[in-house]
Write a structure and sequence with these properties.
Length: about 200
């Protein structure tokens, strides 16, 4: 029970098994095994770090997402906390929702897409990287905002330049699709349908 609460509080974040092990009074290997059980039983999903080298991909730490937002909130004892637009918590819930939708649709449409996230040691990050057979690499930034600013696009633009063959989009809560320096900013539902439901 203590592990599940700790895992729920670490939801959407890079997994730090040492911290969770200390919090719940277990050893590191036991916590790693617990996360494996959650993934094997389809209760959670591991989002691995992106790297062109498979060996380097495995050498970095994954993120973890429980497969249901309500389950996550219940395990973290946050059912009475309403996610309010503009807060960090609301952004985390929105990110979890979008990533889970992408994962579920990939399975439903049998698209064989591979999902990961992209991060550097200095803190630059892209929320979701999608490797699609016979299509360009897709970089997705997830923003719960109703108005995406240049500050929101900074890291995405940086990675888009470093991976020039990629496509870059933002899934957000703006009402109209638009472009900014080669990056498409899309209402989340429209973007998911266009980019993540078709072979």
């Amino acid at each position: 029970r203590r592990f599940l609460e700790g895992a729920a509080q670490a939801n959407t974040k890079v997994i730090n098994c040492n911290n969770i092990a200390n919090d719940v009074g277990a050893d590191n290997k036991t916590v790693e095994n617990y996360f494996t059980i959650l993934e094997d039983t389809l209760v959670g999903y591991m989002l691995q770090p992106f790297h062109h080298s498979f060996r380097k991909r495995l050498s970095q730490k994954p993120k973890f997402y429980f497969i249901d937002i309500g389950l996550t909130r219940a395990l973290a004892n946050l059912l009475d906390v309403i996610p309010k637009p503009g807060t960090h918590y609301y952004g985390e819930v929105f990110e979890q929702f979008i990533i889970l939708e992408c994962v579920k649709l990939n399975s439903y449409y049998e698209l064989n897409y591979r999902f990961s996230y992209l991060a550097t040691k200095d803190g630059a990050e892209v929320d979701l990287v999608v490797e699609r057979p016979n299509k360009p690499l897709l970089l997705i930034e997830i923003k719960s905002s109703t108005k995406v600013t240049e500050k929101h696009l900074r890291h995405l633009k940086q990675f888009h330049k470093e991976l020039p063959e990629s496509e870059a989009i933002v899934l957000c809560q703006e009402r109209q699709a638009r472009r900014s320096d080669g990056i498409r900013i899309l209402p989340w539902k429209e973007g998911i349908i266009e980019y993540l439901t078709k072979k």
